[in-house]
Amino acid sequence: MDYRYRALVGLGNPGEAYVETRHNLGFRVVDEVARSLGTTLRPSGRMALAELKRGDEKAEIVLVLVKPMTYVNLSGEAVAEVREHYGIEPHAMLVVVDDMSLPVGRIRVRGKGSDGGHNGLRSIIAALGTEAFPRLRVGLGAPAAGETPGEGVGDEAGDEAATDSGARDHVLSRFRAEELGIVEESIERAAEAARDWLAGNDLQEIMNKYNRRQADSTEAGIQPEPGSDGES
Questions:
Q1: 87: alpha, beta or left, given left = phi > 0 and alpha = psi -120 to 50?
Q2: What is the CATH number of domain 3-219?
Q3: 85 is catalytic
Q4: Tens digits of per-residue pLDDT, 71-93?
Q5: Whose CA, among 50, 104, 172, 175, lies 20 to 30 Å from 22?
Q6: Euclidean distance between CA atoms 169 and 162, whole angstroms
């Protein structure tokens, strides 16, 4: 039987206190994908996991949905286990991650890149020994100058989300009321992109489709943000 494996990995912090924080966008996208595919992730060691099979006996595709339960900065431990257990190569793993350099509502798909200062990506790169794995970045927005972060959970998680304490407070805060609708739309759009990838669509085509959607903002006079993670 010809098995082809693909893993979708969403980053976030476990526990009810972190469910709606900015740093948990990866978890929320994976949960939306699971919901749309009619499955639920269940605890499995250091992760929550769901396994789905698609296709027929001649060409069966195994889709693995993963949420590391190690806190963001140790995400690589769970990803390494997934790679070892399923034999999934890095190019067949799509990592969904929050990104402070992208405005709220924006998403961006890339085929590879550095960690861009994100400790979850740094952990995964160290675990896999390569930066060559696709990632789906979901904007959480940067803190405005002099901004007081919204209600959050402080730094109780032991996840050093950023070296700057202001940035750490920001990523561990919750979205403001006026951002909630935009956030939900970006999660739905990111989940759609993730499903396209899980279905085996070409990564370049996915990049063209979803990254190009952001061009409408430029035409309206909003300039695209510079990349922050060295991706190509």
A1: left
A2: 3.40.50.1470
A3: no
A4: 999 999 999 999 999 999 999 99
A5: 50
A6: 9
